[in-house]
Amino acid sequence: MVEPHSEPSMEEILASIKRVIAEDGPVAAPRARPRPEPGREGDGVLELDRPAPAPEPLVSRPAADAATRSFAALAAATPPPPSDAPLEAIVREMLRPMLKDWLDERLPGIVEELVMREIGRITGRPL
Asked: What is the number of helices (H) and of strands (E) in the chain?
């Protein structure tokens, strides 16, 4: 009878690694390499000894000013929230009219369907 192939245990794996390390002998200390110029890449390592230059803006100054004016107009058009109201209360008040419309439109049908389903369950005959 053939035994199924089993995976080596963790202890066997660790023992194997220790044997390989012992056979290889001590590891030589890495050689010191010259440091690249600050802010330059050397041997795949980027040295960040000085700050990187600021990136060029993605938007031109006139476009940024126009966007700022538009946002200021939007802020002026919306009433300021009460200073003591948390964000949740503000969102709740904004969603209230939408929720009312949704419920007015769908709630009667939902209730009717659920009542009919329950009557059918109780009586044992589908309606």
From this structure: 3, 2
Q: Is the pLDDT reported for residue 85 higher than 60?
A: yes
Could you count the other beta carbons within 10 Å of the beta carbon of residue 109? 9
When pLDDT is averaged across residues 90-110 and rounded to a whole number, the result is 90
- Nearest by Cα to 45 from 34, 56, 57: 34
Given this model, what pLDDT does residue 95 score?
92
Name the amino acid, one letter, at 4. Answer: P
Tallying the residues shown for the chain, one arrives at 127
Report how far residue 103's alpha carbon sits from residue 96's, in angstroms, rounded to the nearest whole number.
10
Instruction: State the pLDDT at residue 105.
Output: 93
Reduced to 3 states (helix: H, G, I; strand: E, B; else coil), residue 96 is helix
CA distances (Å), origin 102, targets 50, 85, 99? 58, 25, 5
In the numeric block, which tokens belong to residue 37? 């110029």
What percentage of the chain exceeds 70 in pLDDT?
A: 75
